[in-house]
Amino acid sequence: MRERDLYGVMVLAVVGVSAFCVVGWGTRLANELAGVGAFVLAAITAAPVVAKWWGGSKPFASSRGKPGIESDEEREKRYRRGIEAGDAWAMYLLGILRKQQGNLDEAERWIRKAADAGLVNAMLNLSVMAERRGDTAQAREWMRKAADS
């Protein structure tokens, strides 16, 4: 098994994603993304989000004009309420929203705040972001922090 494969297995073990989630999300994402990164993203995306500010079970996927799914503006308002309450998940999810919108600098800033608050999913996401930039040393550092948390 290559080091890159071990990296992916470690991510899945740290996040604790079931085989069903990995296959269900990973297969779909693997068609769009190459290598272990798809499974890392699947593990991060499939993580449960439970917080007082959540306000229901609306999905946090971008609405893309589909009825019944909240808009990016609604999501941001909800996340900002959580951030005001000091919730690391809200920081993380605002970072994910910014990432989906293509604002990678702001995305990394919010995800880093969540990681600094101890959120393992944020640490894993920062590891993936660093790897995609080609900064393997930083990717390993975030992975170690996640594993140690």
From TrEMBL:
Q: Does the keyword Membrane apply?
A: yes
Q: Provide the species name.
A: Stackebrandtia albiflava
| Upper taxonomic lineage | Bacteria, Bacillati, Actinomycetota, Actinomycetes, Glycomycetales
Q: Which residues cross the membrane?
A: 7-27, 33-54
By what name is this protein known? Tetratricopeptide repeat protein
Could you tell me the superkingdom of the organism this chain comes from?
Bacteria
Specify whether Transmembrane is a keyword of the entry: yes
Q: What molecular function terms (GO) are annotated for this protein? A: identical protein binding
Under the heading InterPro entries, the entry gives: TPR-4 (IPR011717), TPR-like_helical_dom_sf (IPR011990)
Which UniProt keywords are given for this protein, alphabetically ordered? Answer: Membrane, Transmembrane, Transmembrane helix
